[in-house]
Input
Amino acid sequence: MINPIHDIDHVLINEQQLDEIVTRLADRINHDYAPSPNAIRPCKLIVVAVMKGSVFFYTDLIKKLNIPIELDFVKVSSYYAGTRSSGQLKIHLDLKRDDYENIDILLVEDIVDSGRTLACLTENLRGRGAHSVRTVTMLDKPSRREVDYKADYIGAEIPDEFVVGYGLDFDEKYRDLPYIGVLKSEVYTK
Ligand code: PRP
Output
């Protein structure tokens, strides 16, 4: 039987550290989106998981939010194969909504790499008339950036290493690891 742990070089962010990061981000989001008693027409906050990589982070994050939210999901891809980014965005699953008036959107991502996914998606949703579009990402790899993009909330900045676990995959494997680990290079260079 194959043990995926043998493919991990080392743990980059362990479960306790992930929980601390999620708590810190949730505290900031709770503060920033706290309902204003003076608002004439309060906005509705939709927290959107960018599938599939964000799924662990998303469920952990929304459990720590104490503000009124609605959930939604979007599936996009900017990678066509292996470890290289194509830089193109395809929407495979869209939000279940036509009217974006008085809607605040918070996109939840596992990682920002080239920056193309969130840059394109943010622009797309702003174009539909959303009141605001912000982004939260667990991981940020600024050294890989191809477009000028910065998430509003960043969990951890990491070096350019191939990370898996906590939702992140290589060829759809390792997503279910409860921590974020660095994949051994021989696994993806075979
Ligand atoms: C990954 C990741 C982000 C995106 C980041 O998704 O989850 O959505 O790539 O890359 P970028 O900043 O270069 O655009 P992927 O397309 O691999 O799909 P997945 O979430 O289903 O793994």
